[in-house]
Automatic annotation (TrEMBL), chain A:
<dbReference type="GO" id="GO:0016987">
    <property type="term" value="F:sigma factor activity"/>
</dbReference>
<dbReference type="InterPro" id="IPR013324">
    <property type="entry name" value="RNA_pol_sigma_r3/r4-like"/>
</dbReference>
<feature type="domain" description="RNA polymerase sigma factor 70 region 4 type 2">
    <location>
        <begin position="135"/>
        <end position="186"/>
    </location>
</feature>
<dbReference type="InterPro" id="IPR007627">
    <property type="entry name" value="RNA_pol_sigma70_r2"/>
</dbReference>
<dbReference type="Pfam" id="PF08281">
    <property type="entry name" value="Sigma70_r4_2"/>
</dbReference>
<dbReference type="GO" id="GO:0006352">
    <property type="term" value="P:DNA-templated transcription initiation"/>
</dbReference>
<keyword id="KW-0804">Transcription</keyword>
<keyword id="KW-0805">Transcription regulation</keyword>
<dbReference type="InterPro" id="IPR014284">
    <property type="entry name" value="RNA_pol_sigma-70_dom"/>
</dbReference>
<protein>
    <submittedName>
        <fullName>RNA polymerase subunit sigma-70</fullName>
    </submittedName>
</protein>
<dbReference type="Pfam" id="PF04542">
    <property type="entry name" value="Sigma70_r2"/>
</dbReference>
<dbReference type="InterPro" id="IPR039425">
    <property type="entry name" value="RNA_pol_sigma-70-like"/>
</dbReference>
<feature type="region of interest" description="Disordered">
    <location>
        <begin position="187"/>
        <end position="206"/>
    </location>
</feature>
<feature type="domain" description="RNA polymerase sigma-70 region 2">
    <location>
        <begin position="33"/>
        <end position="100"/>
    </location>
</feature>
<dbReference type="InterPro" id="IPR036388">
    <property type="entry name" value="WH-like_DNA-bd_sf"/>
</dbReference>
<keyword id="KW-0238">DNA-binding</keyword>
<dbReference type="InterPro" id="IPR013325">
    <property type="entry name" value="RNA_pol_sigma_r2"/>
</dbReference>
Length: 206, 386
């Protein structure tokens, strides 16, 4: 190794989203990968299991990727999908922590108040947002683990069905049907006859 | 609250997306942690064959690669969780909120002698062996799991109920033969915050009775098809999904078994902020399956007797009609208990109890529990009652 300390992220690896990872200069390739994907990956993971665990998971994801680089087949997945697939696998060890966190969020004591002397409509909006977040947390906690993966890869990692299929190693049709089902499920759960008309009200000004 | 009818209105797509987009959108990025991760990566690139890497890493895999042990375990866990293990696992309180572990992972504290005595006595009772089962008969394992479904009302009021799920498993005397599994929701529920009326007012779905299809598979390998595997070949195995082979490979010496449990359960470096509670959770995962042979159950009790933070919480707890001693560990506002019938040494279930007010839930409230019972039947698909 000549450049393991003096690496500079100069150019993306050839093939950009499907680079070869088995070349002679892993330091270069992996440096570029890290700089391109670590930050959004960290954000995704932190939203799921908290920042501390995300710190570890990002590090582990890239170390696993490095170790498994010869198994990466550019034809089968973009490198981003592959990395999120590794991260999703690692995340499974933290499912309990994630679900606990979601339950805790769902039953968090409301810290917001409705009797703010200031702008009343703004306060109501904040209350609604907090309530919505709690309801969403409860709904996310109740999902099957695989469904939650698909939903959050789509929503938070902004992946399309093909990328999610690549990441999880499942057929794209399965991803689509899961996504459809889980969205229906959440919409049904979050919708509230009468009681939850607030999202609409809160948006009337924009 | 505005007036409302019972019209079931779906949330519009864009509002779901907006809610998802807003959820925890304020997570900070830790530049220093990223820099450290990058440095680790670069060091690993330079290192001769990855000796520098943490142990967990060498045991990981990716979705496209054949499975090392750890992947088996995590898959097994995921699968197991697909149904009511939610009960066992879910609900606890730690917010992922990233506090340093409050319990010693190394176990410096003295062993609780009362807990050790209960476990040792249970091990002695258990050690005599499993009830005889004739060729052609099946062991029928019924697992009733109660887990939380909750939400917040528009006024912020916390609403939560426990919904009962039932898993029935028929295990042949020779494991390579056909098993059957049936999961259902009974429609039974108990309210731990708010009322049914509150739930209806905010549109929280109330789970009604629902019978799942009966699945049949040799070796209990119900996921082979999903995994694209031949049944019984390359089966995932672990604490959440014990196979005969995996169990045969576990040490029966209590110290060695505890060591193994510690190695397999997530450690502090894997985001475990609940210390030794995870040991209990893993042990309970395995015990809850009802598949452990007597010698292994006994060894596991003796191993748990060595865990210092495990305490006798309550004698004579009634769980789904059976009475046992609760042994538990407490972290961060929630206690995880296992329940053992001292008369027989049988594992009768587990529960999670809130120990610090959480929303509308008061300390002492059970927020999830699972009760297991095992019997023998003559035919697959039949229950002891029919």
């Amino acid at each position: 190794m000549t450049d393991d300390s003096g690496f500079v992220a100069d150019e993306p690896p050839a093939g950009v989203d499907r680079p070869r990872l088995d070349g002679p200069e892993p330091a270069k390739v992996f440096g570029v990968l890290f700089d391109a994907y670590a930050r959004p990956l960290h954000r995704y993971l932190a939203r799921r299991v908290g920042q501390e665990t995300a710190n570890d998971l990002v590090s582990e994801t890239f170390l696993v990727a490095l170790r498994e680089r010869y198994q990466y087949e550019p034809a089968r997945a973009t490198v981003r999908s592959w990395l999120y697939g590794i991260a999703t696998n690692l995340l499974r060890r933290h499912v309990r922590q994630e679900v606990r966190g979601l339950h805790a969020a769902a039953r968090a004591v409301g810290t917001v108040e409705r009797h703010d002397p200031g702008d009343q409509s703004r306060v109501v909006e904040r209350v609604d947002a907090a309530v919505t977040a709690r309801r969403l947390a409860g709904a996310l906690a109740a999902l099957f683990d695989g469904d939650r993966d698909v939903l959050l890869l789509a929503s938070w990692a902004e992946m399309d069905s093909v990328e999610i299929a690549e990441a999880l190693g499942i057929p794209v049709g399965t991803v689509r049907s899961r996504l459809h089902r889980v969205r229906r499920q959440l919409q049904a759960q979050l919708s509230a006859p009468g009681g939850h008309s607030e999202p609409t009200q809160a948006r009337k000004e924009d | 609250m505005p007036e409302h009818d019972n019209l079931y209105r779906m949330w519009p797509e864009n509002e779901l997306d907006a809610a998802l987009a807003a959820f925890r959108s304020d997570v900070p990025t830790d530049g220093r942690a990223l820099a450290a991760a990058r440095a680790d990566l670069m060091a690993a690139v330079g290192a001769p064959h990855h000796e520098r890497k943490p142990m967990t890493v060498t045991e990981q895999s990716t979705p496209t690669i054949t499975d090392p042990p750890r992947t088996h375990r995590t898959q097994a866990r995921r699968r197991t969780r697909r149904w009511l293990v939610a009960a066992a696992a879910a609900a606890a309180v730690a917010t992922g909120a990233l506090v340093a572990p409050s319990l010693p992972l190394g176990g410096r504290a003295p062993i609780d002698s009362a807990a050790a005595a209960v476990l040792t006595a249970a091990a002695a009772k258990t050690g005599t062996g499993d009830p005889a089962i004739q060729p052609g008969q099946y062991r029928y394992i019924a697992t009733h799991g109660w887990s939380g479904r909750g939400t917040a009302g528009p006024d912020g009021k916390h609403i939560e109920y426990l919904s009962e799920g039932l898993q029935e498993l028929w295990v042949p005397t020779v494991w390579s033969q056909q098993w059957m599994k049936r999961t259902s929701t009974t429609g039974n529920r108990t309210w731990i915050a708010g009322t049914e009326q509150d739930a209806k007012a905010v549109g929280l779905p109330l789970e009604g009775p629902q019978q799942g299809p009966a699945e049949v598979a040799p070796c209990g390998d119900f996921n082979a098809k999903d995994d694209g595997r031949e049944p019984c070949v390359g089966m995932p195995a672990g604490w959440q999904m014990p196979t005969e082979e995996w169990m045969a490979g576990l040490p029966r010496d209590p110290h060695k078994l505890l060591e193994r449990l510690r190695a397999d359960a997530p450690g502090a470096d894997e985001g475990n902020d609940r210390g030794d509670v995870e040991l209990l959770v893993y042990a309970a995962d395995a015990l809850r399956t009802g598949l452990l042979p007597a010698d292994l159950r006994a060894a596991l009790y003796r191993a748990l007797a060595l865990v210092p933070s495990l305490k006798v919480v309550e004698h004579s707890v009634n769980l789904d009609g059976r009475t046992g001693t609760a042994l538990g560990m407490d972290t961060d506002g929630e206690r995880h208990d296992i329940l053992i019938d001292p008369a027989t040494g049988e594992f009768i279930g587990e529960r999670q109890v809130i120990t610090r007010t959480a929303g509308a839930i008061k300390p002492g409230t059970t927020i999830a529990y699972t009760a297991v019972s095992t019997s023998t039947v003559n035919k697959i698909g039949t229950t002891p009652h029919n």
